[in-house]
Amino acid sequence: MDPALSPIVKAYDVRGLAPQQLSEPIARALGSAFADEVGISEGRGAAVIGHDMRSSSPGLARAVGDGIRSRGGDIVDIGLASTDELYAASGRLDVAGVMVTASHNPAQYNGLKLCRAGARPIGFDTGLRAIAELASEHLGAEPAEPRGTRTERDFLSEYADLLHRLVPVGDRPLAVVADAGNGMAGHTVPAVFDGLPSIRLSAMYFELDGSFPNHDANPLDPSTLVDLQAAVRDQGADLGLAFDGDADRCFVIDERGEPVSPSAITALIAARHLADHPGATILHNVICSRAVPEIVRESGGVPVRTPVGHSLIKAEMARTDAVFGGEHSGHFYFRDFYLADSGMVAALHVLAALAETDQPLSALMTSYERYTASGEINSTVADQQAVLATLRERYGSYALDELDGLTVTADTWWFNVRASNTEPLLRLNVEADDAPTMERVRDDLLELIRS
């Protein structure tokens, strides 16, 4: 792999500083390689391309398209789009797809999310490494003239119609505050919510602006939720929705202004799916609350635990024919949405569930939030494997597994420690029956990890 590519080709996508690391020539080379890898060169097929609101995104999207067309592949350009809108287009049109976005990363970054026809994921071991190696051959070569065609298509209304068919929302009037973080939800939320006459929408930071002037579009960071929490309280809204930069993740705020755990949202949506699909398989990753598999079993389903990461989860969904999968990071995956993740579909499920009751959201979620969690805590660690070895020895008398990092389970608590794929970080999640136990286990672990 060319040295220019190795720092930006990640486990699930391409991501780097733009244009310092991800330039238009590199994007063009990756587009050429992508066409060859997914078999659409020489007039054999097409790819759909979408891009987010970052200033570098239109140029990178054109470059990727030129690369595909230089190999004789056709492109369908849907322009500004959320990542889940791109997946919907890939699935609906049954063509490969490229989304130009750096998701929740700061403004100076950009990236590419790639999929095969039908929104089937491409990760490092399922095509991305091969694409990077092929792209290495194109870098520095004289650009070939485009031979494939380019067609523009507005897919937004088709995307909204698809979501309305997937998740009908009842007639209960609900006041919703949505914070787009100046990301792509500012493009998609109006189109989707226009078809929900019972919902009164209050929009926050819907202006598309890749410089993120109000806050980072990363709802995993609690500081980015503060404005939304205040707005929900001040307006007396029924709930708040926070989306990340490319709007494929959604976080929920209840009527008190309190964040709802993504694990609880996973359990709620799982129960809804199992009501329609008795005995179905539900996926949850290793850092989801243990309430998730409990509720899946209580609802008559089969829980399957997975590593963290969207390409891994999508592959496991296909293998197990799971109807739904959730990650504690706010990614939610749906079999009837081409096995892809969609923050908007998850948001509609929450609205639909709330519309079926006369309860406030906090009351509805009580049965899904059973334990006390630490949230993810990152620690900078130079020798990650040495620390993990110390933890294995220290907690060796408990149940251990290494599906993804190290998970240790006791009667009243469990924890997971995972190494970051891209940074010298260890990520810790702790959950317990009560707050004092969680705090004790958390503090003991942090002392070991940071010593």
From TrEMBL:
<keyword id="KW-0597">Phosphoprotein</keyword>
<dbReference type="GO" id="GO:0016868">
    <property type="term" value="F:intramolecular phosphotransferase activity"/>
</dbReference>
<dbReference type="InterPro" id="IPR005841">
    <property type="entry name" value="Alpha-D-phosphohexomutase_SF"/>
</dbReference>
<dbReference type="InterPro" id="IPR005843">
    <property type="entry name" value="A-D-PHexomutase_C"/>
</dbReference>
<feature type="domain" description="Alpha-D-phosphohexomutase alpha/beta/alpha">
    <location>
        <begin position="266"/>
        <end position="371"/>
    </location>
</feature>
<dbReference type="InterPro" id="IPR005844">
    <property type="entry name" value="A-D-PHexomutase_a/b/a-I"/>
</dbReference>
<dbReference type="Pfam" id="PF02879">
    <property type="entry name" value="PGM_PMM_II"/>
</dbReference>
<dbReference type="GO" id="GO:0000287">
    <property type="term" value="F:magnesium ion binding"/>
</dbReference>
<feature type="domain" description="Alpha-D-phosphohexomutase alpha/beta/alpha">
    <location>
        <begin position="158"/>
        <end position="257"/>
    </location>
</feature>
<comment type="similarity">
    <text>Belongs to the phosphohexose mutase family.</text>
</comment>
<keyword id="KW-0479">Metal-binding</keyword>
<protein>
    <submittedName>
        <fullName>Phosphomannomutase/phosphoglucomutase</fullName>
    </submittedName>
</protein>
<dbReference type="InterPro" id="IPR036900">
    <property type="entry name" value="A-D-PHexomutase_C_sf"/>
</dbReference>
<feature type="domain" description="Alpha-D-phosphohexomutase alpha/beta/alpha">
    <location>
        <begin position="9"/>
        <end position="126"/>
    </location>
</feature>
<keyword id="KW-0413">Isomerase</keyword>
<keyword id="KW-0460">Magnesium</keyword>
<dbReference type="InterPro" id="IPR005845">
    <property type="entry name" value="A-D-PHexomutase_a/b/a-II"/>
</dbReference>
<feature type="domain" description="Alpha-D-phosphohexomutase C-terminal">
    <location>
        <begin position="376"/>
        <end position="447"/>
    </location>
</feature>
<dbReference type="GO" id="GO:0005975">
    <property type="term" value="P:carbohydrate metabolic process"/>
</dbReference>
<dbReference type="Pfam" id="PF02878">
    <property type="entry name" value="PGM_PMM_I"/>
</dbReference>
<dbReference type="Pfam" id="PF00408">
    <property type="entry name" value="PGM_PMM_IV"/>
</dbReference>
<dbReference type="InterPro" id="IPR016066">
    <property type="entry name" value="A-D-PHexomutase_CS"/>
</dbReference>
<dbReference type="Pfam" id="PF02880">
    <property type="entry name" value="PGM_PMM_III"/>
</dbReference>
<dbReference type="InterPro" id="IPR005846">
    <property type="entry name" value="A-D-PHexomutase_a/b/a-III"/>
</dbReference>
<dbReference type="InterPro" id="IPR016055">
    <property type="entry name" value="A-D-PHexomutase_a/b/a-I/II/III"/>
</dbReference>
